[in-house]
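Most newcomers find our protein records easier to grasp once they have seen one. The structure tokens are whole numbers drawn from a learned vocabulary of backbone shapes. The record below serves as our worked example for the rest of this section.
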Amino acid sequence: MSNTNREPNSLLQRSVTTKVARNLANTTKTPPQMMSITPRWLLKLLPWVHVSSGTYRVNRTKIELQKPDRIGIDFHEGTPAFKPDALKSIPLFSSFNDEIITGLAKKFVLEESDLGNTLILEGEERHKLFIIAHGQVEILSKGLHGEELRIALLSEGEFFGEEELVSQKPSTVTIRTITPVSFFSLSSTDIDKLFRESPSLRESFGKAVEEYLKIRSTVNKHGEKHIDLVAGFDEDVEIPETYVDYSNKPREYSLQAIQTVVRVHTRVSDLYNEPYNQIEQQMRLTIEGIKERQEWEFINNREFGLLHSVDPGQRISTRYGTPTPDDLDDLLTKVWKKPAFFLAHPKAIAAFERECTWRGVPPPTVSLFGSPFLTWRGVPLIPSDKIEINKSKSGLGTTTILLLRVGENEQGIVGLHQAGIPGEISPSLSARLMGLDKLGVASYLLTLYSSLAVLTDDALAVLENVEVGYYHDYEHRKTALKTK
């Protein structure tokens, strides 16, 4: 038969095929890979303190004057409201009795204002307290040449004008809305009406205000008592006596446990231990999961997590939603004593990069642990996917950016653990054999003890309402430039 008539697929087999030969060969294997493993930069950058007793006590100086806190706003079918007790978050009202607080709460009026409206104009004698229920307002003052200077940006739960209620002086600032705003207001006229309805409250109110003003004159901006000092070369000056009081209720941090039980059948560990030890791989992957949870707890835990440890005075909001260089500069003013690093979701860092690119100021990079990191003003931006993104109605989402100072000597933030625990395989992480069951399954208890402590309020600050979904239209910009 001629070769020209042979079908293409009827060639004679002249060698063993690669598919069959592979059965006689060894394969080069990798250990199990897991996509949920992240670099966990936060755990690497935190200084760790050994806590031998399992409890870490943070002693602070005594706060003589309560610091302002945000007022919790509740929404019922879209209508904002607050509980009367929430008014005690205002330092001026903190010592008021329940009768005064309840009476004041009833006098608040819910108002709404559009974008760009002025609530108070500098120089006006409008003695009014405002509580922001929704939206944002900015507080402005006049510069040396009459220009408007922004003092603060306030959002939901924040308030202003409390001292104007008890002062006869005209307003020294201008209050203007930068979004549509809902707010509660209380004027000095409303308080006078309350006193006419309940005359007995007038005296109690006056005494509480007088006591507040007296204490305020003896403390610094942090609410701590002034240290009496004398400076100069005069010889006939009496040296003042002073002392520093301590908080009688210091905060204590207990080491928190993250635990799980790893189960491995003895047949698996006996027969299938080459080239990788099955127990070791089960332990390794589970420990990775434990440490991922550890970093999540350090950021989100409601008792000690970073997001829930930020002092209200250390919270600021973005002006336009996207994280701009101006916003990060404002954040740096909150943690200006040796800031260590920003901590943000990768999408928040990308949004900040876009804003820098738009302005033509690309941030420089620095190498840490062999990896490049963006920096702003020399402070690295550290990514962590444990900072969550809250989905909004528009489908984009907002998040937060943290700024930390770390270390005990810097009165910063520290990680807590206890080295040397029984069965330890790494600091504060132990593995213990619990035994075998009747089916031949071995159980190993894995336990990680740790916590996190914020030593002073100014060691941590947060930028809120960070929008991550906005992109600039560069083609539109090019067209506009050509038109010009």
About this structure: DSSP finds ten helices and 25 strands in the chain. The chain has a mean pLDDT of 90.
